[in-house]
Amino acid sequence: MLGIADARKKLGDLIEYAAKGHPQVLRRHATPVAVLLPAAEDATPVPAAPDTTTLQPTQETAPAEAATEAASNPAPAPTNPAPTTATASAPTVPSTTPTGTPTADIPTPAIPTALGTTRSAPASQPPAAPPITVPVTPSAPPKPSPPATIPATPDASHETATPATSPRTTTAPRTSRRLAALAQALDTVLPPTTPAGETTTPTPTPTPQMGLPTGIRALDDTLGGLQPGRFYLVAAAPGAGSSLIATAAARTSALDQHQPVLYAASGLTRADIAARIVAAHLPVDYRRLRAGRLTPTEQDDVAALHHLLASAPLYIDDGTDLTTAAIAESVPDLPGLALVVVDRLQTTEDPRLPLSGPAQITDAAQALAHLARTHGLPVLAALDTDDPRLIAALGLDITITLTRDVDQIHATITERDLGPQATLALHADLAHARITDPGNPHASPTTPAPQAPPTPSTASPDTPVQAHTSPLPDPAPTDPAPTAHPATSPKPQPHRTAPPGGGYANRDYNYFIDMITRAVDEALHDSDGDVTAATEALVKKAVPNAMALFEATRVGGNYEYTVYPETLEFLRKKTKGGADEIWEGRHNWTNTHLMEALQNGTHPPITVNALDTNASFLSAFKTHLPIGTLIHEPNGGFDPKRSGIYRLPTCPTWHHPHLPDPIGNRREDGPVLLDDATIRLLIRCARLGLCEAPHITERWTSGTSEGLLEKFRRVLTEARTNAIKADDTVTVEYIKAMYSKFTSTIGESSVNRDIRRPDWMHIIRSQAFANLWYKSHRAHSNGLTVVRVRGTDELHVAGDWRTVFTEGRLTTQMKQKDQYPLPRKSTR
């Protein structure tokens, strides 16, 4: 059983096999449409479709040629003409049954007219006809026939076909080569010119761009668009944007140019493609679109453009049996097809995906390049690797290699014979599942830019929704606050408006801060303005709300935090209320030398200031977290580009009684398991000359990133700052519950089922302890006496602490909780 596309290449052989008694079944995709069988003696021959190719006069073709030339050059009719078979390239295939009765033509599959529909016949079209049996005359010694005479032409003499004296053989028809004069070739790359001697008004005529636009202007200016007959391979590591280039090209051609596009989705579904197109075209936030959490305004925008999107001539094939042969079979089914997009070629072999695996990728790339040349179509394919060895082995004419650096993508365009041609800097707008030009990252590449340039607060790449589609626009300065605490007079809500200068780090986080504001407003409304009841309700919802906010800030991030690796044994709790084997540097330290001197009277009495570190866990979100499975490395050592858990044969010795021990109050001897934050603190202390560098004998680490929680931290920090300035105690307590409970529940907790990373929990808490140690070292270095260190946020010092630390409630400031004398006065 062969597909029609493959059968065309070897039709002559198939006819010969069928004539020898071996039936041949032809199929379109998985549906049989024709069967080649030996013809009966009295079968009526099937008329051949007209063919413009020149055939050599053989025993098989001569009678047929004589019959067609009978009108102009009468000749005796052959006594036993060889029946011919209709080719699969005809729009309909008339045929006969073995008894000679004509059968119905094969209906052409219907073409879909809506985005994401499958290729199926419309309701008005009759069901597909059953497979058609095409008779073929068995091979046998033919009866002698008169020679067929081909009339002379000005360019050829008479040729006579003589009867064959050997068994019949099938001769493939000769196809004339396509020859083009240089003048014709020049028309494809140069504008028309005026012949010499003719005078015309000189007008600058730019070289026409013959190709289809990709929707990314910088890319189109370099490539000249997607040219007919060329194969473009977009190679990039996962998450670097190759699929987004493919989607952009398909979206621009189908929606903006109204050109038919075939989108072959390997490993993706039609829902994936449709969601990316909607998110990029409107634009709306991709993750909220997939999660069904669009705002009413965004839903109205989607509904308004539904008809435009649904009528686009974009046809998606997301079948699991997608092969290059299937793609080639679909091309004739789409009249006027302008572009073929293949998303994607996968390097990891998957038995369920034909376009996967190194060997299959090589064959697929060559087949797609052949498809582009033979059909005169631009073909663009995405490849999920930027491995230069694999790309070079493919030997393709044009390759676009992408590398991503946060929200910037570098595209290198290479031609096989000429090498690298250009390197472009593009913008990765992953919140809207698209790649744009760097000059105006928020303007849709298919729509004109706004008249006025965006303000810094609306031009931030961290804003997931554009200003014109924002569901919660900033209220005018004269608008009253939507909800006021009943115990106080109405006052504005400053956290609804970005602070001067564009907010934290000149970024606009209003969208995320509005998520916090709405939750507070709803809680106050439900509790009839009772501040205490609203705060209690918000604290109960802190975990799910924190996870929702964290997910929103992760839009466009590479690392998928919901796919967590298997927990290592030493990270598991041995009992329900117990602990695992990781030692955190918890500080519960007292300056014993000072206390003894005070008790002995050898040190004068002192006044101690108990200082409090603001939002210690929130500040600890900026730390090195492992971004994958922890891999065991028995040789130990430390790599600053990795993070995880480390084994030390013994605790480092600490000889500084006036500073707290970096690993806390551990007194047990023997090996100890420390997390990344504590190890980095010990290394810092070694550089300061306070101790020896930690001796690491084993480690369990993965690649690290300080940015996993950075945007989450910035949003909470800005919201907390605004709430403090507005004296909004409900919001302050709500935010405190969000970051503290987030930290305590990402280990083994039934309260939070979205993240299972106990290594993250340990590292964040140890980072908070490390930050407190740095403050104690700063106090000691500036002449203060460090008396006590408690937990993650208490630092007790003697001396004028305001000369060292800034007083206040912000995360970079310290506040005084208490003040007491030492030694304490006797109660007698």
Characterize the structure shown.
- By secondary structure, the chain is of the alpha/beta class.
- It is 28% helix and 17% strand.
- The strands form five sheets. The protein has a nine-stranded mixed beta sheet. Strands 16, 19, 20, 21, 22 and 23 form a six-stranded mixed beta sheet that branches. A five-stranded antiparallel beta sheet has the order 17-24-25-18-26.
- Strand 2 and strand 3 form a beta hairpin.
- Helix 15 runs parallel beside helix 21 and helix 20 (710-725) packs antiparallel against helix 21.
State the separation between the terminal residues, measured CA to CA: 105 Å
Low-confidence spans: pLDDT under 50, at least 5 residues?
A: 46-114, 116-129, 137-167, 200-209, 440-502
> Strands of the largest sheet, in order across it?
9-8-10-11-7-12-13-14-15
Return Rg in Å.
Answer: 38 Å
Indicate the mean pLDDT.
77
Q: In percent, how much strand structure appears in the residues?
A: 15-25%
**Number of distinct beta strands:** 26
Q: Number of helical segments? A: 22
Helix/sheet category: alpha/beta
The major pleated sheet works out as:
9 strands, mixed
Which range best describes the helical content: under 10%, 10-25%, 25-40%, 40-55%, 55-70% or over 70%?
A: 25-40%
Described by the principal axes of the CA atoms, the overall outline is: elongated
